[in-house]
Amino acid sequence: MELIGREDRLRLLEGLLTDARQGRGSAAVITGSPGTGKSAVLRAFADRAAGAGATVLSACATEAESDLPLGVVGQLLSSAAGTGPAPGGAGDGDASRPEALYEALRALGARRPLVVTVDDVHHTDEPSARCLLYLCGRLAATGILLVLAGRPRTAPSLPLAEVLRHPRCVPVPLRTLSEDAVAEFLRAGPAGTGDAEAARRPAADWHRFTGGNPRLLHGLLADHRDCGPVRPTRPVAGTAFRRAVVGCLSGAETPVTQTAKALAVLADQVTLTLLARFLGVPERAVVPRLAALEATGLLDAGRLRHQGVSAAVLEWLTAEESARLHARAARVLYDHGAEPPAVAGHLVAAEAARAADGGAGDTPAWAVPVLAEAARHAMPAGQARRAAEFLRTAHRLRDGGRRPDGMLTALARAEWESDPASVIRHLPALERDLAAGRPDDGRWAEAAALLLWHGRYETVARGAAGAGDGPRAREVRTALGHLCPGAGRPSAEPDPDAVERVLESVAHALAPPPSVPALLVALLYAGETERAARWCELTAGAQPAGTTAARQAVAVAAAAVLHVRTGSYDTGAAHAARALSLMSPAAWGVAVGMPLAAGVRAATARQEHEEAARLLRVPVPDTMFRTRAGLHYLLARGGHLLAAGRARTALADFHACRDLLADWGEPARDGTDWHTPADEALRRLGDTQDGDPAAVLTRAERRVAMLAAAGCTNRAIAARLYVTPSTVEQHLTHVYRKLRVTSRGDLARLSAVHPAGTAGTAPQVY
Predict the structure, then answer these.
(1) Which residue of 399, 567, 654, 659 has the fewest C-beta atoms within 10 A of its own C-beta?
(2) DSSP assignment of 640-685, as one string?
């Protein structure tokens, strides 16, 4: 198997051995790129020669001993001494004399044919090379065959160059295998079936993957065997293949190895001009290096053959070397006018390698602006994770304070797209940016949206209050008003047109969608079911290819709300489950109430009470209960509790919904109807809505009503509740209207008929 495709070379060497038997000595040099099988051919020929009765002496030059004088000659003379007494006392002579080796070998060759092999001859020390040159000039009248094996060198030492060019030195070049030879390799290999037709089918892929390099083929075969018991039909570059790539490059000259590393680092951005600039050599000097790599099989059309080769080269780099090469690539690409994302990718890789190495490097003045610009390019392309990587690197770099405005908000936005929970650490800084930002700047609106997502309503309300009436400010106020009406200006009726304007900015990826579910619900509860359905379809069913998991989750949650609202409980439950699987509860922020509410309502409607209970065990933030998401969560939880026979606990949730709507100044609509389930809860508790007149009051109104019924004046009530007398008067006006009474006496009579406390005790203020 080692010698597939090499039989013609072995026959050539056997012909030279026949000449040596007849007293016509000669020399041969086996050359080839790393991994093409030079050593294998040399060993195979040595074994055949020994089997045919020839004496074989072997030596192997190494790079470590290339400065050791007469290292190769010493190996050969030691081998000669091991064959028996050296005639003429050759072994006792001065080995430094060029003729010493010739004399010792001639004496051995006088008895029977002699084959002398030197592997890796390109590492031969200079004194040994002089001895080999002396031997080459005197082989004609001997029975000696000298066989050398090594890679071609661009500039060998003078004695070695003379040996390789000697007229008596027959060239035996090795090249990579043809596709037919690869098919034979697969047929005869340990995993082969012996079926020539079956081996030919994958041969093209294996040849394309390895370039026909035997060392790479063996590595690929080892990986293929390790893939068992079910082996892939196409080649797989695993550990053995990567080791083979490194072995080929380790055996190449330093300039060739440097070129391979440059090709791996530059990857798809490589051109001949960029490669020359990267290496710091003229373009004409790059061509022979590329030719050497192509002869090895690692190169195809001027680039590394495939990602498996590139990965092997990059893994081979040390952290320090990786940082240096990527920084060099960034500089070359920047000077060449490359696009910011191409430059930024190398800056990120260089910084990551430095961090792994524990070192630090100089940051060029242009690095941070390029990273920020690259992130700006990446976000519209749906590459939020890559944008976040660029911006995190920019924040880590020591740039002397040259950070573009709004870069922290841009980082938080990119991180929200890939992992909304990671934004939490940026919230204090985002609050500062919102306070100092300009409302006409898109970053201001992004900061507001991210703060809304994580429940910082007061901060956004303060920022939006003084933001003027520009389009960004209106969008933020619309989102705030529908997500958390208590924190913004309350709106008794949702404005569908305003809602749609915000949804348009979200759908075109112009802003993060922290309130999409709330906005769609606002459309639903304004009676705009068709509009809501259309936007649901747009945000959930027409996602661009680069849509992040966060955007998908929000769109699916909106679809869940819509389907549950319209009675499609099976579909709504599936959408809710998928929305919760796309992001963790912490990542959802306050919006977690929307998919949870949809899931609980669907489970309750399907009488899957254990599933509803499981969903209600999911942790939610306290700030959620001040939002529309919290309102729907309370309604869904109350519905489940009522269905589970816990009417009293359910009533508390329905009354909490009543208080929220009263605080917001909104009536209970179809989708937020708490009256009907509350009446059912009271009925199960043995009471009715009419029997509990205080049920229609807010918590604050109940406190005022009970104190007024007890005979307290407005001023006394104000002092007790720490509010102003005018506030007490407003609450009493609402109480009189809701209870259809006109005086404190009426309140006292209602309190006597329906006491709030137990018999014999004063009314409770709660």
Answers:
(1) 567
(2) HHHHTT-HHHHHHHHHHHHHHHHHHT----GGG--HHHHHHHHHHT
Say yes or no: 535 and 435 in one domain.
Answer: yes
Burial class (CB in 10 A: 0-12, 13-18, 19+), 141: exposed
> Based on the structure, what is the number of domains in the chain?
4
- CA 302 to chain centroid, in Å, comes to 28
Does the pLDDT value for residue 117 go beyond 80? yes
Domain of 124, CATH number, reads 3.40.50.300
In a domain, 364, yes or no: yes
Q: Are 313 and 243 in contact (CB under 8 A)?
A: no
Q: Residue 407 corresponds to which tokens in the numbers above?
A: 């870069």
Lowest mean per-residue pLDDT among 193-202, 578-587, 658-667: 193-202
pLDDT value for 655: 87
**Paired residues of 56 in beta bridges:** 115
pLDDT in tens, 261-294: 999 999 989 999 999 999 999 999 999 999 999 9
* CA atoms of 222 and 235, how far apart (whole Å): 11
- Strand partners of residue 172: 30
Residue linked to tokens 């030719």: 291
On whether both 374 and 509 belong to a single domain, the answer is no
Q: Are residues 64 and 162 in the same domain?
A: yes
Q: Is residue 149 part of a domain?
A: yes
> Is residue 682 one of the residues assigned to a domain?
no
Angle (CA) 670 674 679, round 5°:
120
Task: Identify whether residues 406 and 420 lie together within a single domain.
Answer: no
Q: Is the peptide bond before 288 cis (omega within 30 degrees of 0)?
A: no
Range of the domain at 720: 691-766
Q: Are 183 and 203 in contact (CB under 8 A)?
A: yes
Flag whether 674 is in a domain: no
Residues facing residue 725 across a β-bridge: none
Are 467 and 342 part of one and the same domain?
Answer: no
Same domain, 502 and 549: yes
Which runs of consecutive H residues, i.e. helices, occur in 117-195? 126-136, 158-164, 179-188
Number of H helices, E strands in the chain: 38, 7
Same domain, 521 and 455: yes
460, burial (CB in 10 Å: exposed 0-12, middle 13-18, buried 19+) = buried
Distance of CA 132 to the CA centre of its chain: 56
* Residue located via tokens 């309502």: 601
Burial class (CB in 10 A: 0-12, 13-18, 19+), 542: exposed
Task: Tell me which of 413, 430, 445 is where a domain ends.
Answer: 413
Q: Are residues 397 and 419 in the same domain?
A: no
Q: How far apart are the first and last CA of the chain?
A: 91
pTM exceeds 0.85 for this model:
no
Among the residue ranges 29-38, 56-65, 193-202, 512-521, the one predicted with the least confidence is 512-521
**What is the CA angle 500-504-508, rounded to 5?**
165
Asked if residue 576 lies in contact with residue 598, where contact means CB atoms within 8 angstroms, the answer is yes
Residue 584: HSE in the Cβ half-sphere, 13 Å Cα cutoff: 8
